[in-house]
Structure to design on (228 residues):
């Protein structure tokens, strides 16, 4: 019952945030690509809830906690709030570009199609993060009460912060699918904020989580394989 309730709340919240940021600035409901995007968000969220979270209600409860928590470094509080702000801004820019200002030419059909593929891949990577990491809290903190340990399996073998990698693909892919190069450019701002957050998170984890310094030597790349 708890899982079903959280499933409905999670899908509703994501749909309202993304849908509101897309349709309100557009001033119209007649935007087929946006409806496809909302359906993809809803289906991806439902699949994650139904396939990943059963038996992991503790992780689901952790994910539902607020973005500002006790024990969270101040720098991370600032970073996560800035990230949320600019993520919403990046979605607003897509609508404003497509329907009002036309800042840049629209992507070609194959580029926008690639965008949808990137979005789905990003969603999948984030789902694999939840499958692999039962300690994937929304904030930077140490969880000794849950016997937190370093996760170095699955997608964590490729990069140290695969959730952020998935988000980068998701954000850029959304903008391209919705035919906005300007949106893709602006979506780089929350991605850069996540890159800054990585330095905050790693400094904290090296000091608090046993085994994390060794993990950083084992997996060299933070966000992009073979790059950084």
């Amino acid at each position: 019952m708890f899982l079903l309730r959280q499933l409905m709340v999670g899908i509703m919240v994501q749909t309202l945030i993304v849908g509101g940021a897309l349709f309100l600035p557009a001033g119209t409901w007649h935007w087929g690509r946006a409806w496809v995007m909302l359906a993809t968000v809803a289906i991806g969220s439902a699949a994650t809830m139904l396939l990943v979270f059963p038996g992991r209600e503790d992780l689901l409860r952790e994910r539902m906690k607020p973005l500002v928590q006790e024990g969270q470094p101040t720098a991370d509080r600032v970073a996560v709030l800035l990230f949320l702000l600019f993520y919403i801004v990046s979605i607003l820019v897509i609508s404003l570009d497509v329907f009002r200002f036309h800042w840049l030419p629209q992507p070609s059909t194959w580029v926008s199609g690639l965008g949808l593929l990137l979005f789905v891949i990003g969603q999948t990577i984030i789902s694999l993060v939840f499958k692999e990491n039962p300690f994937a809290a929304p904030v930077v903190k140490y969880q000794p009460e849950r016997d937190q340990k370093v996760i170095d399996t699955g997608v964590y073998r490729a990069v140290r912060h695969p959730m952020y990698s998935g988000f980068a693909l998701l954000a850029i892919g959304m903008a391209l699918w919705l035919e906005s190069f300007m949106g893709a450019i602006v979506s780089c701002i929350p991605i850069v904020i996540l890159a800054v957050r990585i330095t905050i998170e790693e400094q904290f984890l090296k000091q608090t989580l046993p085994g994390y310094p060794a993990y950083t030597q084992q997996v060299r790349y933070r966000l992009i394989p073979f790059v950084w």
